[in-house]
Design goal:
- The complex is a heterodimer.
- Chain A is of the alpha+beta class.
- Helices cover 28% and strands 31% of the residues of chain A.
- Chain A folds into 3 domains: 129 residues, Alpha-D-Glucose-1,6-Bisphosphate, Chain A, domain 4, CATH 3.30.530; 125 residues, no CATH class; 111 residues, TATA-Binding Protein, CATH 3.30.310.
- Chain A is built from 9 helices and 19 strands.
- In chain A, helix 7 crosses helix 9.
- Helices cover 39% and strands 21% of the residues of chain B.
- Chain B has 10 helices and 12 strands.
- In chain B, a hairpin with a 4-residue loop joins strand 7 and strand 8.
- In chain B, helix 7 crosses helix 9, helix 7 packs antiparallel against helix 10 and helix 8 packs across helix 9.
- Chains A and B meet through strand 12, strand 13, strand 15, strand 16 and strand 17 of A and helix 1, strand 1, helix 7 and helix 10 of B.
C-alpha cells in the first residue's frame, strides 16, 4: 500500500519528511517506499503567463484522455509558503499519488524536480502519460555515459543492464515478452569489474546498456551520513539512506550535467541563418552518429521502425531516397513529444542529424539513448571535430 | 525529393559550416577565410540588378565569390545578359551591397551547371566574350560519388581557383542546411518540408497558421526576399497545403480559414494524441504519393 503523504508547507518540511522516509526505507526494506525524484523538463515562460501560476499548472499537469482512459486526470494543486514549490495530487480510480514539485530549483525554471513517496508504478504511469501527450513537458532521459559518470561520485553498488531490440525484429520475435536481455548485478565495488568484463565481450558489447545504476554516496568527511541511489535512464532516482543533503548533492550534479549538455546541443547544433548588416551566416553543425561497429543492414526497415511515430522513438518521419545514392536515405522528422523538427541523413555506417530552430536538446538525448537501448550500445555521437556529444 | 539547386545550395553552405563529409575541401575553404555573405542576394550594378544564388567572401583573400547554379539542361534566353552583368560587377557595387572593403577588393563569378549542359554554356560564354580570369564554369554530377569538375576559366583568388581546378569528389552531399530550393517550387519538392512543418504545428496544438508563417519557417531568408519572390513562394506553399488538405488526404483535419493574399489554415479536431497520430499517417501517405509523381 502506498504511504500516506504528509502535508508540507515549505521546503524545509519537505526535506525533513523526505529524509525521514529515506531513513525508514533504508532500515525496513519492505513496506516502506523509498523517495523518488524525477527530473522533468518544461517549456514555459512564467513571466508571460496570462493567468496565475497555479491555474496554469492545473491545466499543464492535467493528464489528457486517451482511448483506454477516456477521462482526463486533473490534479489538485496546492501552493506552499515557499515560492515555486507545489503539492500536486492526482487521483485515478482508487489510487492517489502525490508529487512535491519544485519549479525553482533551476534558476531558468526549465528543469523541475518532482519528489514523491507515493507508489512508483502509478506515478510513473501518470508522468509517462503526461509527457507522452503534453508537448511542453518531458521526462529527462539519462544517457549511459551520464549515469555511469554519476556513479563515479560514490561507490559502485551494482548495475542493471537491459537491451530490448524487439522493435527492430519482425513477427513473433517482436511479440515475445521474454525476448530481451536483462542482467541485474548487485553487490559492492567489485560489480564494476563485472560490468567492465561484460563490456569487453564481443558478443555482449552491443547489449551492455546500463538502464539503472546503484551507488552509495557519502558527503565529504561524513562517516554516518549516506545515500543509496538508484539512477534510472528514464530520468528517475530512487533513494534510501540517512542524508537528504547527500541526495540533493547527487541530484544537483546530475541536473547540472544534464542541462549543460542539453543547452550545448541547442546552442551549437541547431541550424539557423543569422542575418545582419554584414551578411548572412549559417550557424550550427549537424550531429554525427557513428554506427561503424554496428551497421544498419536494411535501411528501409530501420527507417520504418524509427520513424513510425511509435514508442520508443516516437518520431514521425517521411523516409525518402537520397539523390544519387542508393545506399542512403533522408528523413524529415518531427518529435511527437515536443514538435521538434529534425532532418536525418542515414547511411549504413552513420547518421547525420540536423536540428531546426525551436528543436529541443532532449529530443537528441532521447533519440541517442533509445538507439543505444534498442539497437546498439556501440553507437557513438560526435560533433564536426570528432568530440563526443554524450 | 532534392532538386539540383537544393543540392548545390547545400554544397555551397556545407563547406562554410565546416561539414566533415566535405573535407578536405571544407577545411581548406575555411582556412582561406571564406564565409557566406548572402543567400539569394539582389544588388544593383550600372547595368541593372543582379540576383545570384549566393555570395561568399573572404577578407583574408580580399575576394568575393558570386555563385550561380542551374540544373536546367539549356541556358534561358536571359542568361547571356545575366552573365554579362556579373562580369561587370565593380567594387562600388559590392560595397553598396554591404560587403566590407577588404572582401570587395576583387570578385569573380562561379557558374555551376550539369555536365550534359556544359557544351551549351561553352557556346554561351564564347558569345558573351567571357573574361577568363573573372569567371569559372564547373560541372556538378549529383550521382554518387558526386563530382564537381572544372570546365573553363579562373577565379581572381588564386588559391581558391587552384582548389576548384583540382576538382572535388564527395561521397555524401549534406542535405540538411537548405530543406527546400527557392527556384524549384513544385508540390513534390515542397511536400516533405511543408508536411514536416504542419505536423510540428499539430503536435504543438497550434490550431491556426498563415502561409507566410509557414514560409518564414521553411526559408531561412524569407525576410530578405522581395515581394514578388515572396508572393511566388507563398503561392507554391499554399498550393502544397491545399493538396494536403484535399479530401484524399487530410481534409478532415486541415481547413482553409482565410483566402486572399495571406491565406490561413486551421488544424481542427487535434484534441487527442490518437487524432494527431492519425493525421500524421495521412500526411505520410501524402508525401509518399506526391514524391513519386512528376509535377
Amino acid at each position: 500500500m502506498a504511504p500516506r503523504s504528509p502535508e508540507i508547507q515549505n521546503r524545509r518540511q519537505l526535506f525533513d519528511c523526505l529524509e525521514d522516509q529515506m531513513n525508514r526505507a533504508c532500515r525496513v526494506r519492505h513496506g516502506k517506499s523509498p523517495v523518488k525524484t524525477y527530473l522533468l523538463e518544461c517549456h514555459w515562460d512564467p513571466q508571460e503567463l496570462d493567468r496565475g501560476e497555479l491555474d496554469f499548472l492545473t491545466g499543464f499537469l492535467t493528464v489528457p484522455a486517451t482511448k483506454r482512459s477516456p477521462d482526463p486526470i486533473a490534479p489538485k494543486i496546492k501552493e506552499t509558503d515557499d515560492e515555486g514549490l507545489y503539492v500536486v495530487d492526482w487521483r485515478r480510480r482508487q489510487h492517489g499519488v502525490r508529487l512535491y514539485l519544485d519549479t525553482m530549483d533551476d534558476p531558468q525554471r526549465r528543469f523541475w524536480l518532482g519528489y514523491s513517496i507515493s507508489g512508483a508504478a502509478e506515478l510513473d504511469r501518470i508522468l509517462d502519460r503526461l509527457s507522452y501527450a503534453q508537448p511542453a513537458i518531458d521526462r529527462a532521459c539519462f544517457w549511459p555515459a551520464l549515469i555511469l559518470q554519476m556513479q563515479e561520485l560514490g561507490e559502485f553498488r551494482g548495475v542493471t543492464l537491459h537491451y530490448d531490440g524487439r522493435c527492430f525484429q519482425a513477427g513473433e520475435a517482436q511479440q515475445d515478452p521474454a525476448n530481451h536481455f536483462r542482467a541485474e548485478i548487485r553487490g559492492g565495488p567489485e560489480t564494476r569489474d563485472v560490468l567492465h568484463f561484460i563490456e569487453r565481450q564481443e558478443q555482449l558489447q552491443h547489449a551492455a546498456f546500463p538502464a539503472e545504476i546503484r551507488m552509495e554516496y557519502r558527503p565529504p568527511r561524513s562517516k554516518t551520513r549516506f545515500v543509496l541511489e538508484n539512477i534510472e535512464y528514464s530520468g528517475k532516482l530512487t533513494t534510501r539512506g540517512t542524508s537528504i543533503k547527500a541526495h540533493q548533492r547527487v541530484v544537483a550534479r546530475l541536473r547540472s550535467a544534464y542541462s549543460d549538455t542539453i543547452s550545448r546541443i541547442e546552442e551549437r547544433h541547431i541550424i539557423r541563418v543569422l542575418t545582419d548588416g554584414s551578411g548572412d551566416a549559417i550557424e550550427g553543425e549537424p550531429i554525427f552518429f557513428l554506427l561503424d561497429r554496428w551497421p544498419i543492414e536494411d535501411l528501409d526497415s530501420f527507417c520504418d521502425v524509427v520513424f513510425s511515430g511509435k514508442r520508443p522513438f516516437r518520431l514521425w518521419g517521411t523516409p525518402g531516397a537520397f539523390p544519387g545514392n542508393e545506399n542512403a536515405r533522408t528523413v524529415s522528422a518531427v518529435d511527437l513529444h515536443n514538435g521538434s523538427k529534425l532532418f536525418f541523413e542515414i547511411y549504413h555506417d552513420a547518421m547525420h542529424l540536423y536540428l531546426y530552430p525551436g528543436a529541443c536538446g532532449t529530443t537528441v538525448a532521447r533519440f541517442f539513448t533509445n538507439l543505444q537501448h534498442t539497437f546498439s550500445r556501440l553507437i557513438k555521437s560526435e560533433d564536426n571535430e570528432g568530440n563526443g556529444i554524450f | 525529393m532534392a532538386s539540383f539547386s537544393r543540392l548545390m545550395a547545400n554544397l555551397f553552405f556545407g563547406p562554410m559550416g565546416g561539414h566533415r563529409s566535405l573535407a578536405p575541401a571544407s577545411v581548406k575553404i575555411r582556412e582561406l577565410g571564406y564565409r557566406l555573405f548572402r543567400i539569394e542576394p539582389s544588388f544593383a550594378t550600372d547595368d541593372g540588378a543582379v540576383n545570384p544564388d549566393a555570395m561568399a567572401c573572404s577578407d583574408m583573400r580580399q575576394h568575393t565569390l558570386i555563385a550561380e547554379w542551374t540544373g536546367k539542361w539549356y541556358p534561358y534566353k536571359t542568361k547571356p545578359e545575366q552573365i554579362r552583368r556579373y562580369l561587370r560587377v565593380e567594387k562600388k557595387d559590392l560595397l553598396a551591397a554591404g560587403l566590407r572593403s577588404e572582401a570587395a577588393s576583387t570578385s569573380s563569378t562561379w557558374v555551376v551547371v550539369r555536365r550534359r549542359a556544359a557544351t551549351k554554356y561553352d557556346v554561351l560564354l564564347d558569345s558573351v566574350g567571357s573574361c577568363p580570369d573573372k569567371l569559372m564554369l564547373c560541372t556538378f554530377e549529383p550521382k554518387r560519388p558526386c563530382r564537381l569538375r572544372h570546365r573553363r576559366g579562373n577565379l581572381a583568388d588564386e588559391e581558391l581557383c587552384a582548389l576548384m581546378k583540382a576538382g572535388m569528389t564527395f561521397e555524401h552531399i549534406p542535405l540538411g542546411y537548405a530543406r527546400v530550393a527557392t527556384d524549384h517550387l513544385t508540390v513534390p519538392t515542397l511536400a516533405e518540408a511543408v508536411s514536416q512543418e504542419v505536423v510540428s504545428l499539430a503536435v504543438n496544438r497550434q490550431d491556426r497558421f498563415t502561409v507566410k508563417e509557414l514560409c518564414a519557417a521553411l526559408f531561412h531568408i524569407w525576410g530578405q526576399l522581395g515581394q514578388a519572390r515572396q508572393s511566388q513562394i507563398s503561392k507554391a506553399v499554399n498550393k502544397t497545403v491545399k493538396k494536403l488538405a484535399s479530401d484524399e488526404y487530410c481534409g478532415r483535419w486541415l481547413r482553409q480559414a482565410k483566402r486572399g493574399t495571406n491565406p490561413a489554415w486551421s488544424l481542427v479536431g487535434m484534441t487527442t494524441l490518437s487524432s494527431i497520430e492519425s493525421f500524421g499517417r495521412l500526411v505520410k501517405r501524402f508525401v509518399a504519393d506526391v514524391s513519386s509523381r512528376k509535377d
